[in-house]
Structures are given as structure tokens and as C-alpha cells.
Design a protein that fits this description.
By secondary structure, the chain is an alpha/beta fold. The protein is built from eight helices and eleven strands. It starts with a strand and ends with a strand.
């Protein structure tokens, strides 16, 4: 089981990571709200443990952006903001469970395992991207690792190139706007110029040329992935 822990308190983050890993879970950590969505999209965890009080964008913003991006990963909110109003807001934003601090670690583990089990039984997925069994020009996305494979071998891509490829692989043959792709590739990075997506697209285009897939630029619209003629 792979978890993403989004928590800015270093002591709490280290304690939870150490405890959960001792219980057989793989735990990725992030302490910055502005970086959280990108890591979420790249890692495709089985569940997310989310604090609300984060630097950058707060936890509710991260959760709202994730749900808007189609990420269905089960989320447990961990926060000292434990009033009924806060819980309602969190659940309405897309959280699946709510555990106010301080909490018992055994209870946290039980809730995580129950939530992941329920999600699997319901057929929910951590990502809107196709499963490994869905292929486009021999390329497949591994939902567990987030990697993209071509004919069984992983493509060597930088994180932003991978994020862009996964986005267009979700809808091959359909145009995706540059604005939407920018949000997925550079989440929360308002200091980055919009034209930066063109640089990532240029690099990705060269790296997938051998696959038989072509990343096409549509002037004034965005990009789409199609099979080379």
C-alpha cells in the first residue's frame, strides 16, 4: 500500500512516516501545499493523508484541485481544526474521512486500510488515466508507479515530461488546451511563464518519437496525441 502524507510539521511527518512504514506501508511525504498536487499526480498513491494548514495553498485547496483534476484517491484529512463546520467543509470538498488531531495511530492505520479496501471494492481509481492494460501506440501507464511503459520498457522522462505524457495519454486523439496542461504540469507554480509548457512539449515530442505516437501542436487550441502516419 502506497500513501502520500501531506503534512508540514516535520515532527508529525517523521513520526507518521516511520510508524506507518513499520506497519508495511510505503509513505511518500510532502510539506508544501504548492507542491502537493504535482506529487499526488506523479505518485498515484492508494490513499492520501492530508493536513489542512499548509504553506502555500491550504489543504482544502489542494483537495479541491485534485478532485477537479479527476483524481479519485481516497483522502483522510488529519487536522487540529476539528470543529463540525470544518469537517463538513472538508467532506463537501471531497474528503472521504476526517481524523482530528491528536489521534491514535492504531485508529489511523485501521481507517486507512478500511478506506483503501472500500475504494478497491467500489472500483475507484487513484487516477483518471488509463490502466496498464490500456495501450496507445504500445504505451501503457502503470497506475501503481505512475511510470509510462512502451513495449514493456519504462520511458526515461523527467517529471514534467511524464506529467504531460500522462495527461495526453488519458485522452489520445483529443485536444487538450495549453492552459489545462499547464495546470497539470506546473501545479501552483504561478511564477512560471505559460510558455514553459511549450519547452516541455518539445522535449517530450523527441523522447516519444520512436513509439509511433506524435504530440501535435494545434495553434490556438493546445495539444493532442495521435499515431504517426
Amino acid at each position: 500500500m502506497k500513501l502520500l502524507l501531506i503534512e508540514d510539521n516535520p515532527t508529525m511527518q517523521a513520526t507518521l512516516q516511520r510508524t506507518l512504514e513499520r506497519r508495511g506501508m510505503q509513505v511518500l511525504t510532502c510539506g508544501d501545499g504548492d507542491r502537493a498536487l504535482a506529487l499526488w499526480q506523479a505518485s498515484l498513491p492508494d490513499a492520501v493523508l492530508l493536513d489542512l494548514s499548509l504553506p502555500g495553498r491550504d489543504g482544502l485547496q489542494v483537495l479541491g484541485d485534485a478532485r477537479a483534476a479527476g483524481l479519485k484517491t481516497p483522502v483522510i484529512i488529519l487536522t487540529a481544526r476539528g470543529t463540525v463546520g470544518d469537517r463538513i467543509i472538508g467532506l463537501n470538498t471531497g474528503a472521504d474521512d476526517y481524523l482530528p488531531k491528536p489521534f491514535d495511530l492504531d485508529e489511523l492505520e485501521a481507517r486507512v486500510r478500511a478506506l483503501v479496501r472500500r475504494s478497491a471494492n467500489n472500483g475507484d481509481h487513484a487516477s483518471p488515466l488509463p490502466s496498464r492494460s490500456t495501450s496507445w501506440c504500445g504505451m501503457q501507464t502503470d497506475r501503481d508507479s505512475g511510470a509510462v511503459y512502451h513495449d514493456g520498457s519504462p520511458l526515461e522522462l523527467a517529471p514534467r515530461e511524464l506529467a504531460l505524457l500522462r495527461a495526453v495519454l488519458a485522452n489520445p486523439g483529443q485536444a487538450i488546451t495549453k492552459e489545462r496542461l499547464f495546470e497539470l504540469v506546473f501545479p501552483g507554480e504561478s511564477h512560471v511563464q505559460p510558455e514553459a509548457i511549450e519547452v516541455v512539449a518539445y522535449r517530450l515530442r523527441k523522447k516519444i518519437a520512436h513509439t509511433g505516437a506524435q504530440l501535435v501542436t494545434l495553434r490556438g487550441l493546445g495539444y493532442l496525441l495521435k499515431a504517426s502516419a
